[in-house]
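Quick question, first post here. What does this chain look like in 3D?
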Amino acid sequence: MMEVKGNRVQFFTFKTWKFPWLIHGFSSRWGGVSSGEYRQLNLAGREEKPGNIRQNRALFLRELGLFNPRVFMGEQVHGVKTRLVEKTSAQVLPDTDGIVTGSSQHVLMAFFADCVPLFLVVPETKTVGIVHAGWKGTAGGIAQSAVRFLCGFLDIGPEKILAGLGPAIGPCCYEVGGEVAKKFSEQTTRYSSRRERFFLDLPAANAIQLEEAGLPAANIGKSGFCTSCNPHLFYSHRRDRGVTGRMAGIIAIV
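> Answer (accepted):
Ran it through. Tokens below.
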């Protein structure tokens, strides 16, 4: 489960991740300067004023204790690629939905408005990562791909990895057609005869992938929040029919 922190800007962290060298958080929609559909802490989007986004990001970073950091992001193309962030990396890594680093000089940031934020931590080596897992990336196995990347990069077993699934749209609200449902197991889909549609449990699909990749179930934390069900806390692309802001997940080593 996650807990609420912050003063001016409210955000969520995983309760059991108490490592003194780790900073992580998932923003709520409150505490920023945006207005209208994007109120208040909108952290991304082409439709929003760039100045508001810059100010909101600075507010969130400062609330986490990060002042003028080097921030790195993936392009987020709903793919399955995970890349290592190094000193020479571009600020935005192309064709990338998962980013990993072992450097204390790099802050990793990704943006969400229903897709699953997957946080990754390897305490033994002080390595962290964040993954953007929408239905396309999940169907392609991005969670397993990210685990394989970490294991190969660090030469470790998957049991060394902790994972946290942040707030995302839940099976209560994520209505999909049969063409999407067939890409997932019956374990993560439910058919509604009344609506003649399927409901997809995207967080569960990622949790299953993580276990299949070798993570013990005890190593996988879950937020307990549906973004669509909680308009007072989160933006939701599905609920708001595309006119909405974006939350951000941040993870860093200090």
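Residues 2-169+203-253 form a domain with the CNF1/YfiH-like putative cysteine hydrolases fold (CATH 3.60.140.10).
The two ends are 23 Å apart (CA to CA).
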